[in-house]
UniProtKB/TrEMBL annotation:
A GO CC annotation given for this chain: cytosol
Pathways involved: Amino-acid biosynthesis; L-methionine biosynthesis via de novo pathway; One-carbon metabolism; tetrahydrofolate interconversion
Gene3D superfamilies linked: 3.20.20.220
Protein name as it appears in the record: Methylenetetrahydrofolate reductase
InterPro entries: FAD-linked_oxidoreductase-like, Mehydrof_redctse-like, MTHF_reductase_bac
Coiled coil: none
Family of this protein: Belongs to the methylenetetrahydrofolate reductase family.
Keywords in alphabetical order: Amino-acid biosynthesis, FAD, Flavoprotein, Methionine biosynthesis, NAD, Oxidoreductase
Organism: Allorhodopirellula solitaria
Length: 304
């Protein structure tokens, strides 16, 4: 199928919630900061390829404990120059006090960051429990509150967990935590990756019953090999459906595993669109091939 022609960029002044107030399915892509200059150049080339799918914005993570914050801002500045689209920086409570958090937010706004993905953050490598930095914050809802108090113009996304956060005692506790983040001022919820759409629909229904009215945006990772799927799913406690595991393990060739993973993500995407999701956030791992394959020809927001 033919891809839709490029359209004019969305207005940079559009709020984060506004991105999901139009017809169709608004998409966004998540990047991570490369470790080398060559990696940044490769990332920029992939960003240019992804523009054909008319994303609403790009996000960028940073390393554990804020180890690559500077590179994250460099990446976002380059992406904004290339795309003329809004950009979002991840920000966690790990290893930073409130003064340092505010300083990062100031630097982010100075280089043109539009949105923040506000997270508590995972415990540093080698530890199993989150530890509050002296003078810092314990929970993501506190980070949302700090942003709302000091940087009112920044859009805020928070994380949701269709299969329950691994540290939550139960699903209701996890949902209560999400409600606190939304009540503190979050504009949207972006979910952790999942491989079974039924988990997302159940989570979305639970959010509605809990009084969460902001857009719930599913997060999709197109896996391209089974070992990668196992590793990433193990990190976030996402279940891999038996059908996907069986299909990927029948042939260990890179071509077969790529095709199976992309086809699965494409079917997830089609089903999510048919179920009326306001948007989809793709974890693309700084590559464009899998995302381009799965999105080719699909009817998305703003496309002819």
């Amino acid at each position: 199928m033919k891809r839709s022609p490029p359209q004019q960029p969305f207005e940079l002044s559009m709020t984060l919630a506004d991105q999901y107030n139009s017809d169709g399915c608004a998409i966004s892509f998540e990047l991570f900061p490369p470790k080398t200059d060559a990696g940044i150049e490769s990332l920029c080339e992939n960003v240019e390829r992804l523009l054909q799918f008319q994303p609403r914005f790009f996000t960028c993570t940073y390393g554990a404990g804020g180890s690559s914050q500077g590179t994250t801002l460099e990446v976002l500045q380059r992406v904004k120059q290339i795309t003329k689209l809004p950009v979002a920086s991840h920000l966690t409570c790990v290893g930073l006090n409130t003064e340092q958090l505010s300083d990062y937010l100031r630097r982010a706004t100075e280089i043109g960051v539009d949105y923040i993905v506000a997270l508590r953050g995972d415990p540093p490598k080698g530890t199993t429990e989150f530890s509050v930095t002296e003078g810092g914050l314990r929970y993501a809802n506190e980070l949302v509150g700090l942003i709302r108090e000091q940087f009112q113009d920044l859009g805020i996304a928070v994380a949701g967990y269709p299969e329950v956060h691994q540290e939550a005692s139960d699903a209701q506790t996890d949902l209560d935590n999400l409600k606190r983040k939304v009540d503190a001022g979050a504009d949207i919820v972006i979910t952790q990756l999942f491989y079974d759409n039924a988990d997302f629909y159940r989570f979305r229904d639970d959010c509605v019953r809990a009084g969460i009215t902001v857009p719930i945006v599913p997060g999709i990772l197109p896996v391209t090999n089974f070992k990668q799927a196992q590793r990433i799913a193990g990190m976030c406690k996402a279940a891999i459906p038996i059908s996907l595991a069986d299909a990927m393990t029948t042939d260990d060739s890179p071509e077969h595993q790529f095709r199976v993973g992309v086809d699965h993500a494409r079917q997830q995407t089609i089903d999510l669109i048919e179920h009326g999701v306001p948007g989809i956030h793709y974890y693309v791992l700084n590559r464009s091939a899998a995302a381009a394959e799965l999105l080719d020809g699909l009817q998305l927001a703003g496309q002819a």
